[in-house]
Design brief:
Radius of gyration: 17 Å
Strand order of the largest sheet: 4-3-2-5-6-10-9
Strand content: 25-35%
CATH architecture: 3-Layer(aba) Sandwich
Order of helices and strands: EHHHEHEHHHEEHEEEHEE
Shape: globular
Helix content: 25-40%
Number of helices: 9
Length: 259
């Protein structure tokens, strides 16, 4: 593990997310029309969830950012979707979309895309409204707390996901392992953890602001999962299309593990 690259930039992290991470800018850059990485991720997550092997009553996403689309394929396999984020602006963006506010980000193209993958693009509006109904809560979270949802306490979840989040909160391997432990504490026995992030990424850009990320490789992630006792670990990686200087990584990973 090493944070490398962009050594001439001021890299932000931690509390900076509350004032320097701008949800609309991030969404436009990473999830706007024609962004190729967004389509690749939707394709992979659809293939993952469409096996039907990952299902249950309640799914928790930690560090959701302002993003809805990563869980469209998961929605039909769970009764409740609980979102969470550290930054108030990201939570506000999620609430705006749930409440169908006029200035909410337009996720309709993402729902149309996934409905087409499902084989019936005409169902996208039904899928969108079902998704809104299943968004049962949007919590404040901090993955560095023993209970990342503190002060909220919840029954253990059937599935916990965290996409493009955990490495971005950590400075070193020890911190990363501790965060994995905290996240795993929210899973029931037999529950499934799904992580998605960039391989070897040391920084990413939101507007003119650069944020730090702990650079990890396959062995780093698997070692951290094994350290907290997770089993049935499966690793998947795929090339990410070029992101025009937004990230210093060109590969993403998804890892699935069971508690």
């Amino acid at each position: 593990m090493a944070n490398q690259g962009y050594s001439d930039k001021v890299l932000r992290r931690g509390v900076d997310y509350k004032s320097m991470f701008h949800p609309q800018v991030y969404l436009d850059d990473y999830y706007g029309p024609g962004v190729p990485q967004s389509a690749v991720i939707k394709d992979f997550l659809h293939s993952l969830f469409n096996t039907g092997n990952i299902n249950g009553d309640r799914l928790l996403d930690l560090g959701s950012g302002p993003v809805v689309s990563n869980h469209i394929s998961a929605a039909k396999w769970f009764n409740e979707l609980i979102f969470s984020d550290y930054a108030p602006g990201n939570r506000d963006a999620l609430r705006k979309w749930k409440n169908n506010d006029v200035d909410a980000f337009d996720w309709d193209p993402a729902f149309k895309y996934v409905a087409a993958l499902e084989g019936d693009v005409t169902k996208w509006e039904e899928d969108r409204e079902n998704f809104r109904r299943k968004m049962s809560a949007i919590y404040d979270c901090d993955v560095h707390n023993d209970n990342p949802l503190h002060p909220v306490t919840c029954q253990p979840f059937d599935c916990v996901t965290s996409f493009f989040c955990l490495e971005e909160t950590c400075a070193d391997e020890e911190e990363f392992c501790r965060v994995i432990r905290n996240v795993t504490s929210l899973l029931r026995e037999g529950g499934v953890l799904i992580l998605l992030n960039a391989v070897g990424q040391s920084t990413f850009k939101c507007g003119d602001v650069y944020f730090s990320s702990l650079s990890v490789e396959k062995n780093d992630v698997i070692k951290a999962l094994e350290k907290v006792g997770l089993k049935d670990i499966s690793w998947h990686s795929f090339q990410a299309p070029p992101m025009a200087g937004l990230s210093d990584s060109a590969q993403c990973y998804v890892v699935v593990a069971k508690k």
